[in-house]
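Annotators were shown the component list below and the corresponding predicted structure, then asked to write short factual statements about the assembly.
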Amino acid sequence: MMSESSSFMKGMILGGIFCLVMSFFGTFNSGSHSEGHEHLHHHLKPVSKDELQKLSESQMTDWTLQVRVYCLIMVTPKLLVHWATANDTWSKHCDKSVFYTSESSKALEAMDLQEQDEWARLRKAIKHAYENAGDLRWFFVARPTTFAIIENLKYLVLDKDPSQPFYIGHTEKSGELDYVEYDSGIVLSYESMRRLIEIFKDEEKCPERGHALWKTSEEKQLATCLQYSGVFAENGEDAQGKELFNKKSISTLISDSMGQNPADVVEACCSDMAITFGGMSQSQIQVLMYGVYRLRPYGHDFHDSLTFLPPKDSDND
Amino acid sequence: MSSFKQHILFLCGVAVSILLSIMYSWVLRTLTPSFALNGNKPAVKHTAVSRRTALEFSQKVRVLCWVMTQPKHLKSRTQHIRATWGKRCNIVLYMSSEASDFPTVGLNVSEGRSQLYWKTIRAFQHIHTHHLDHADWFLKADDDTFVVLENLRYGLSKHNTEEPLYFGRRYTPFIAQGYMSGGAGYVLSKEALRRFVKGFADGLCTHNTETEDVGLGKCMETMKVQMGDSRDVLGRQTFHPYPPDYYLPRQTRRPRPWYLLYEHYQPVEGPGCCSDLAISFHYIDAVQMHTLEYYTYHLRPYGYKHRFQPDEHLNNRTNI
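Structure shown to annotators:
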C-alpha cells in the first residue's frame, strides 16, 4: 500500500513541477514580449466605467472643470469651404477655438499668422495658444478637413493629468520615430505645450526652418521636437482597442468593414466613442453633426458620469 | 507490488497533476477580467435601464414591418435591412414575388414598377389574413428605407390603433386629402388596415393606378381613414423620402427644389428639416444603411445633454 501511494505521489509531484516549469517559461516569454510591445506602441484608453462610478460628486466636478479644450484649427484660404464648415459645426464644442490662417480671408475671421510655411505656422500657433490658454489645459490641433467630437476627446483625457506630458492621436511609425498623424488630429497636454515652447528655442534640435534638402512633414517635426523633450506619442483607443482617431471618412470605414466583417459591419468598424474622422465633404459633415448630436432612438439613456451642455447660439446640435 | 503497477501509478500521478494545473489556470482565466478577452462585459453598450424602457415600449406598441422587395435585391439591399433595423420590428416580413429562405413571403404577383400597387394590395391582404392580431400598427417600407423603430413607437404611442389613422410623409397632389410618400414609409392603424382590405373586398377600392402610394392614399380617402401629422412637437419632419443630405445642409433662401414640390407642410431646409427623433430616410444604399445604424445606435458624444428633450414639451396637438 505504501509503495503504491508513494509511486502515485511521486508522479503527482513530478507532474506538478513540470507544470510549474512550463508556466514559468510561458510568463517569461509573454512578459518580455509585452514589454517590447509597449516600447513600440503606447496605447492610451479612457477611464473605465467602474472607475468613474467610484468617484465622488466633487471629484466629478473638478474633473469636468479641468478637462477643458483649446482647439487650434489650422486653415488656409484654399480650404475655405471646410474652414466654414468647421466653424459652423464641431469647433463650437471646444471651450475655446481659434482658427490660425496662413493669410487672411475676407470671408471668415481668423488669427492671421502671415506664414506660408506649415511648420513655422504650426509653431506660431502653438506659441499663441500657450500664451492665451487662460485656464485651459488641453490642446487639440487639427485641420478643418477633420471632424472632431470634443466630448469624446474629453472623455479620453478625463483621468489624465495635464501637468504631465501627453501627446495623443493616431500613431504611425517612421523609422525609429513614433509620431501622431496630423490628419486625424493631435492632442497635447499643457505640459507638452510648455516643453514645446522651451525646445522651440533650440535651433539645433528643433529648427524653425528645416536645414535638410528635403522637407519633413510638420507632424514628424513636431514628434521629433517632442521626443527631445521626453514626450512620446500615444495611440488613442477605446476599451476594446478600437481606434478613436481616424483620418478616413465614415463611409470608407463602413465600406471596408462590409468587405472584411460582413456579419458585423458596425460593431467591427468603428468605436462608439470615436473622436475624429477625416476626408468628408461639407454636406457629409453637416449630416454627421446631426448624426452625432441629434439623431437617436427614443428611450436609450446612458447615465454617463459627466454632463456636457450644448453650446450657446447653435441650432445644429 | 509489481514494478509495472508502480509505473502505472506514477504515470497516473503525473497525468492527474497536469490535468489539475490546466483546470486551475483555465478557471483563473475565465474569472479574471482582461482586455484581451471580452467575456460577458460589453464595453460601451446600452445600460440595463435603457434596454428595459425600449423593451416595455416594444411590447406596448407592437409594430409589424413589411418590406417591399424582390429576388434581385435580397443580396444588394434587403440583407442590410435584415442586419440593421429589421430585427427591431416586432414582426418583419420581406414581401417579394417569390417565397425563399431569406425568408421572403411570396405574393401572387410578378415583379416590375407596374406591379407595385398589386404588391401593396396583396401584402396588406396577407397581413390582414395572417397577422391582424399579432401587432398594433402596420408599417410599409421599401428595401432602401432606413427606419428607427423606437421613434416610430414613441410617435404612435399617443394614438389609438382602433381609430382609422395613417401616418407618413404627407404629400399634396392627386388626392384631395393628400397621401403618404411610399418611399419614406407609411404606417396604418389596425382599423385602417381593416378598412383597406374591406375596401377591396367590397369593390369600393380598386387597382386604379400603378403608383402604389397614390393608390393606397385614394383608398384611404374613400374608406375615410384620417391623415395623421407625423411631425414632432417642434414641427420637424420624422419621415423622409430622401436621404439626410438632401435636407440637412444649410441653404440660402431659394425656391423649392424639385424633391420638395409635393410637400403638404411648408418644407424647411437646413437643421430645422428633421426631427432628432427621425423615423425614416429613403434612397439609402447599403453603405448608408450601416452608416445610419452607426449614427443612430452607436456613435455618440459622451455625457452630452441633448438640446431637444421631447418629454419636456407637452401640448395638445393631435400629431405624432
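Statements collected:
1. The longest strand of chain B covers residues 63-68.
2. The mean pLDDT of chain B is 89.
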